[in-house]
Amino acid sequence: MLRRLALTAVVSLAALATAVPASTASGSPSSGAVPSAVPTTGPFAAARPSLGPLPLPVPPLPGFLDGGEGKGTGEADEVLTRLTVSVENTGVAGADGTFELECGPTGGSHPRGQAACDRLAEAGATRAGRQELFRPTPEGTMCTMIHGGDDTARIVGTWEGRAVDTTASRRDGCEIARWNSLVPVLPDVR
Fold first, then answer.
1. How many CA atoms lie within 13 A of 73 on its CB side?
2. What SS3 state is found at 168?
3. At residue 180, what are phi and psi to the nearest 5 degrees?
4. How far apart, in Å, are the Cα atoms of 3 and each of 12, 59, 60, 76, 118?
5. Residues with Cβ < 8 Å from 73, sequence gap 6 or more?
6. Residue 128: helix, strand or coil by DSSP?
7. Would the pTM count as exceeding 0.70?
8. For residue 123, how many other CB atoms are within 10 A of its CB?
9. Model confidence over 151-183: pLDDT tens digits?
């Protein structure tokens, strides 16, 4: 979000600098009388700095906006999401196994890679999603005693640059809901 905001500001300033002619930006009068809110006489007339168009091209983004690596905008893309998903005991053909998932760009051996990356991006767009997606069910939570099966999964890696190491199962209602919130990162076994 911060990166998008900074990029929008930089592009807007660059567009403004090219749209405003140098004579208007420097404050020099053109031929003919043009009304102005800027004082031309009095104590505030001398305090007006001479502004010109912004210099182009725009420099590379600082390190805190490009993922912390100090890379500029023109350098290689950095994969911020790289997960290893291990699934066992689902009873669904092709669902068990260990799959690699990379997002930005999508890659790896995950059978539904693009859909999984889309789900992760959707969750990452909200604060609640970022906080809850991989968080285990807190101890002492009252959950329905519905057994959803012996399915188990482990997800290890990085998501949006944050470390992830979590397990999921379908042993009770809370864990079933958690598993379902992770579909299609985890297989849909309903």
1. 12
2. strand
3. -65, -30
4. 14, 14, 12, 16, 19
5. 60, 61, 66
6. helix
7. no
8. 20
9. 999 999 999 888 999 999 999 999 999 999 999
